[in-house]
Amino acid sequence: MADSIDRLIEEFNKLPGIGKKTAQRLAFHVLRIKKEEAENLAQAIMDVKEKIRYCSLCFNITEKDPCKICADKKRDRSLICVVEESKDVLAVEKTGQYNGAYHVLGGVLSPLDNIGPEDLKIKELLNRLKQKGVKEVILATNPSTEGEATAIYLAKLIKPLGIKVTRIARGLPSGGALEYADVNTLANAIEGRVEF
Amino acid sequence: MSIKKTEGIILKKIKWSETSNIVTLYSKDFGKLKLLAKGVQRLKSSFSGGLELFGLIDFVFYKRGKKNLYILSSSDLVSSYPLIFSSVERYGVASAGIELLDKLLAGEEKNEDIYSLLVDFLSKVQDLDKKNLEKFLWAYSLKLLSLLGYKPRFDECVKCGKRGKSLKATSSGFLFFSSDLGGIVCPTCAKGDKLYFRLTRSQLNWIRRVLDSSLDRIEKLELEKREVKNIGDLILDFLSYHTGFGKELKSLEFLKKISLGKEES
Description:
The complex is a heterodimer of chains A (196) and B (265). Helix content of chain A is 44%, strand content 13%. Chain A has 8 helices and 6 strands. Chain B is α+β, with helices and mostly antiparallel strands and 265 residues long.
C-alpha cells in the first residue's frame, strides 16, 4: 500500500479505542472526503494543540485565560467545586445544576504512582481560598480509593480556614436496585439521605 | 479450570479498556491472581462496591482460553478498611505494604500466613498512632520477607557463627549487617569494613522481637525514631540486593514527599 495511507492508518491506530481495522476504515474515509473537509480536520487537531492551555485560576483547559467559567460574572464565585480532571468539569456542567466556579486538581493522590500533594494543584487551591469571598468548597473527586483519600486530605487542609467543606453525595444510581447495591453504597445512601 | 470461589485483597488496578479494569489480588486460596473485571467502571456494574484498592472481597472467577488471565464473574465487598484514608500518611503506608507484597510475589501460590499477615496489616494500619506508622511498616516488611523465605539471619554471625552471649558488639555498641551475606556480622569478622550496615544492640533486639511477635504487639515494642529509620534503610538495602527493587518503590517515594520518617511536623 502507499506509504502515506500506511502512515495515516498507523496514526489513527494510536488513538484510544481504535484498532487496526477501524484505523483502516477511517483512513480510507479520509481518502474519499473533499480536500477542505480533510483540511478542517487537520486544522481542528492543530488548533487544539496550539490554542488550548490551562486557566490560571481554575486550571481547566481553555483558549482564553481566565477561562469562560472564571470570567463569567453571573457565576457564583463564593462556591468552588473541586474536581480531578477537566472532563469532570464537562460532566458537572452538563447537569446544568451548578452555577459556581471550579478547581481542577489534575489528578488524585496516589502513592502507588508516586503522585503526592505537590504534584496536584493543591497549593493553588489554598491560595485561591485565602483570598476573600469563598464560602463553600465542594469536593467532587471520584468516589474511588484515591478520590476519597484526596477529598479527606483536602478537607483537613481547608476546614481550618473556616470555609464550609462539602462532599458530593454517594448512593444509588437512578434505575438501580437496592438488592444489588453493595453494603458501602447502601450505607452511604442511608447516611446521606435528604428530607423529602 | 472450573469456576472457583475465594476471598482476597485488591493490590492493584489497571485500566484495561473503556470500562474494564484488570485487578491484581492476593487471595486466600490461590495466592496472587490477575483478574479481568469487565465493565466495572460502568455506574451500574454488578461488581458491587466497585473493586477498589485495599478492598477485601469475596469473589468468583474462572479461566477462559489459555491466557494467564482470569475473568471475574462476581464480587462482594466484605471490608474496604475505610479508616486507612483518615490520613495521608496512613494511606501511604498501606499502599507501601501492598506494593511491596505485589512486587515480591511473582505468581499464584497459596500461602495463608501471608494472607492473614496482609489482612492484619490493613486492619491495624487503620487505628495505629501516627508516630508508630513507620515502625509498623518495617515490622510488616520483616515479617513478610521471612514468610517468603528471604529472612536474613539475626541470630548468629553469618561468617563465624558466633551467637548468644559470645556475639559481642563493638565498644561503642555496634554490630554489623551485610545484605549480600544475608545477616548480621560480628565486629571481629567485619573488621571495620565500610560496606556493612551499622546496627545497634537495641535495633537488633527490636528486629528479633518483631519476628517473634504478632503484628498486634508491634506498637508496644518501643524504638527511637532515628533507629526506626536505620532499620528501614537496612531492609531496603537488603531488598534491593536480593530482589532488585527497594528504594524505588513508588509509595516509599510518596511517603518521603509527605515527609513521613522526617521530623514530626
